[in-house]
Amino acid sequence: MPSRGLPESLAATRPGTGRWSAIECVEHIAVAEDFLLTQITRAERSGVPLVSQRREAAILARGADRNKRLMSPEVARPAGRFPTLADALAGFLTTREQTVRFVETCDEICDPSR
Length: 114
Description:
Elements: H1 8-11, H2 22-46, H3 53-64, H4 85-105
């Protein structure tokens, strides 16, 4: 899978101290997507509500302001899980496909208004 123009030789280059490289950013997104999909599917099977309005509002409030840096949860921090940017992108796209499939097939459990 092509990495959309960024050479692999630059993918691991960090733009500065305390900053993540492109491969680390994609790894973070891939791992976060997998973690969130796992949490959603577990909640669906257990009957726990999938959405908490209070929690969603807190996430939106904290994440909307990009001027304040936030620390990623440990589980989603880059740890060298993918050897190349192309592998990280493929990992993300595989999980994203599963997420889209889940959403497309989700029934009334996913829609509390039903």
